TrEMBL record:
It is a multi-pass membrane protein. One of its GO terms (molecular function) is metal ion binding. It is found in: Membrane. Zn(2+) binds at H100, H229. Coiled coil: none annotated. This is Hemolysin III.
Length: 256
């Protein structure tokens, strides 16, 4: 969940070393990869606090969501779709926490963590749309979801293996892929419609992500990274609420 456009601010004295893994060797390290961003101690503490809260909440919320799916719906596809969302949530927060919170390591390893952090965002976007597509069902929803996953996997691969060439397109691609999921809410996109409360929550979550990008790019603003991650965390759990809300609506009233 870090700034996906190029290297972070360098720390003086950070020296490069050869790649430590096969992946790092296959994807050459960008020149002058920093050991850690040059944020103040207070900024680092604030960002760490946001990450710790996010990971702690996710560790509790992810299994709860799967249990809710089993109790309220009980069908294999819905449980699988919710499990994909939970896995994407944990992957994104875990990769971000590993990159931002681990002690300084060799530059090749840190560069690898940075790339995985950025790549996980694409997978989280596709994972978020998965339970909604499963819930509405139908060939149209399946086709849309498949297209999103193909784009997400392609974006993740580019962020890992070609980060410099994909640098300027990263943020627009994140936003475009996220908002493309709104096609699932169009009339006729699937066999069932999603509830109004679900649609409102999804729109709010999308707007939070989009507005948060302003702080992601405002590098001269103090605490910009912690603020950005705060927006990501709030938006993530708005989407979580949307999934749980939709399952609750269907459990009480059946498909809309």
């Amino acid at each position: 969940m870090h700034r996906p456009a190029g290297p972070a601010r360098p720390v003086a004295g950070a020296a490069e070393v050869p790649g430590a893994t096969a992946l790092a060797a296959a994807a050459p390290v960008e020149p002058r990869a920093p050991a850690s961003p040059a944020y103040t101690r207070a900024e680092q503490v604030a960002d760490a606090a946001v990450h710790c809260v996010g990971v702690a909440l996710a560790l509790m919320a992810a299994p709860v969501m799967i249990v809710i799916a089993a109790l309220l719906d009980g069908t294999g596809p819905v449980i699988a779709g919710v499990s994909v969302y939970a896995a994407g949530l944990m992957l994104m927060l875990g990769c971000s926490a590993a990159y931002h919170l681990l002690p300084p390591v060799r530059p090749a390893w840190r560069e690898l963590l940075r790339r995985l952090d950025h790549a996980a965002i694409y997978l989280k976007i596709a994972a978020t749309q998965t339970p909604f597509a499963v819930l509405i069902g139908g060939a149209g929803a399946a086709w849309l979801l498949g297209s999103v996953w193909v784009a997400a996997l392609g974006g993740a691969a580019l962020r890992i293996f070609w980060p410099r060439g994909f640098r300027r397109l990263a943020v627009p691609f994140y936003l475009a892929l996220g908002w493309a999921g709104m096609a699932l809410f169009w009339p006729g996109a699937g066999e069932d419609a999603l509830g109004l409360a679900t649609v409102i929550l999804v729109i709010v979550g999308g707007l939070l992500y989009t507005f948060g990008v302003v702080f992601l790019l405002a590098e001269r603003l103090r605490y910009h990274n912690a603020i950005w991650h705060g927006f990501v965390l709030v938006a993530t759990f708005v989407f979580y609420a949307a999934v749980v809300s939709e399952m609750g609506i269907r459990a009480v009233a059946g498909p809309v």
